[in-house]
């Protein structure tokens, strides 16, 4: 694997290789000494043009646990505020010895541009671009589902036949797009539930079902996992649009409240990529329940990002143990 730009680029075999490698990485993280020497002498640059807590910190932890050096770049406070371009920023970091670049950018397609422009000669990993893709989020979500829903299957397993319901602001969600792509590749059956105003044009061509009614979907699908999406109010205002439906209406029709939580099958995983709007798309009761994997998803993100960095930088050298 040279780059990781989109979950849609991954074959089933490639996706399962990443999940299996992440399982090996996760096993090393319960040891007293967590650090592996696999990427010693290499430098990973985290190039973040948009805010992040989980993704940026977990990529940093992942690189360090593989013994790589890490350079963290945030656009805020950098020469980007003086108008420096993506090309010049990337070439500056390459000159400082970047062996891999992890990029988050508000523009959909920025990681692809970086990977294919010839501006730099390093693997590029997409840490979230605009409303397009967030492939490592989808991988950590699939990793979490596989651990809980396929505990006997072991390595080599997909998510065949598992029913996953993804709810909310699909329009602005790179997490939803990436999850639909990856979960379909892994054999899961995905249903998107959203108000018509928060579904992108073209969603009807995606490999999933679409519903506007959460209660009916929960009753009919009896999901193995329900993933609540963050309502991205910041992207709505920047696009000049209002928050439609209203917050109260949204919460009433699409929020995971106490009644919907009770209506879910007892084994159903409660998932959210974070950060959460508690009380809007998810109640505290659901988020903090023992069926919630929200905190575990963050921890699994380190193992998955270790696997991705390892595979793009040293992938043909065998999995470290
Ligand atoms: N899930 C996710 O991408 O979170 P951050 O924005 O905190 O990285």
UniProtKB/TrEMBL annotation:
<dbReference type="InterPro" id="IPR002082">
    <property type="entry name" value="Asp_carbamoyltransf"/>
</dbReference>
<dbReference type="InterPro" id="IPR006131">
    <property type="entry name" value="Asp_carbamoyltransf_Asp/Orn-bd"/>
</dbReference>
<protein>
    <recommendedName>
        <fullName>Aspartate carbamoyltransferase</fullName>
        <ecNumber>2.1.3.2</ecNumber>
    </recommendedName>
</protein>
<comment type="subunit">
    <text>Heterododecamer (2C3:3R2) of six catalytic PyrB chains organized as two trimers (C3), and six regulatory PyrI chains organized as three dimers (R2).</text>
</comment>
<dbReference type="InterPro" id="IPR006132">
    <property type="entry name" value="Asp/Orn_carbamoyltranf_P-bd"/>
</dbReference>
<feature type="binding site">
    <location>
        <position position="137"/>
    </location>
    <ligand>
        <name>carbamoyl phosphate</name>
    </ligand>
</feature>
<comment type="pathway">
    <text>Pyrimidine metabolism; UMP biosynthesis via de novo pathway; (S)-dihydroorotate from bicarbonate: step 2/3.</text>
</comment>
<dbReference type="InterPro" id="IPR006130">
    <property type="entry name" value="Asp/Orn_carbamoylTrfase"/>
</dbReference>
<dbReference type="Pfam" id="PF00185">
    <property type="entry name" value="OTCace"/>
</dbReference>
<dbReference type="GO" id="GO:0016597">
    <property type="term" value="F:amino acid binding"/>
</dbReference>
<feature type="binding site">
    <location>
        <position position="275"/>
    </location>
    <ligand>
        <name>carbamoyl phosphate</name>
    </ligand>
</feature>
<comment type="similarity">
    <text>Belongs to the aspartate/ornithine carbamoyltransferase superfamily. ATCase family.</text>
</comment>
<dbReference type="GO" id="GO:0005829">
    <property type="term" value="C:cytosol"/>
</dbReference>
<keyword id="KW-0665">Pyrimidine biosynthesis</keyword>
<feature type="domain" description="Aspartate/ornithine carbamoyltransferase carbamoyl-P binding">
    <location>
        <begin position="2"/>
        <end position="146"/>
    </location>
</feature>
<dbReference type="GO" id="GO:0006207">
    <property type="term" value="P:'de novo' pyrimidine nucleobase biosynthetic process"/>
</dbReference>
<feature type="binding site">
    <location>
        <position position="55"/>
    </location>
    <ligand>
        <name>carbamoyl phosphate</name>
    </ligand>
</feature>
<dbReference type="InterPro" id="IPR036901">
    <property type="entry name" value="Asp/Orn_carbamoylTrfase_sf"/>
</dbReference>
<feature type="binding site">
    <location>
        <position position="230"/>
    </location>
    <ligand>
        <name>L-aspartate</name>
    </ligand>
</feature>
<dbReference type="GO" id="GO:0004070">
    <property type="term" value="F:aspartate carbamoyltransferase activity"/>
</dbReference>
<comment type="function">
    <text>Catalyzes the condensation of carbamoyl phosphate and aspartate to form carbamoyl aspartate and inorganic phosphate, the committed step in the de novo pyrimidine nucleotide biosynthesis pathway.</text>
</comment>
<feature type="binding site">
    <location>
        <position position="174"/>
    </location>
    <ligand>
        <name>L-aspartate</name>
    </ligand>
</feature>
<dbReference type="GO" id="GO:0006520">
    <property type="term" value="P:amino acid metabolic process"/>
</dbReference>
<feature type="binding site">
    <location>
        <position position="274"/>
    </location>
    <ligand>
        <name>carbamoyl phosphate</name>
    </ligand>
</feature>
<feature type="binding site">
    <location>
        <position position="54"/>
    </location>
    <ligand>
        <name>carbamoyl phosphate</name>
    </ligand>
</feature>
<keyword id="KW-0808">Transferase</keyword>
<feature type="domain" description="Aspartate/ornithine carbamoyltransferase Asp/Orn-binding">
    <location>
        <begin position="160"/>
        <end position="311"/>
    </location>
</feature>
<dbReference type="Pfam" id="PF02729">
    <property type="entry name" value="OTCace_N"/>
</dbReference>
<feature type="binding site">
    <location>
        <position position="82"/>
    </location>
    <ligand>
        <name>L-aspartate</name>
    </ligand>
</feature>
<dbReference type="GO" id="GO:0044205">
    <property type="term" value="P:'de novo' UMP biosynthetic process"/>
</dbReference>
<feature type="binding site">
    <location>
        <position position="104"/>
    </location>
    <ligand>
        <name>carbamoyl phosphate</name>
    </ligand>
</feature>
<feature type="binding site">
    <location>
        <position position="134"/>
    </location>
    <ligand>
        <name>carbamoyl phosphate</name>
    </ligand>
</feature>
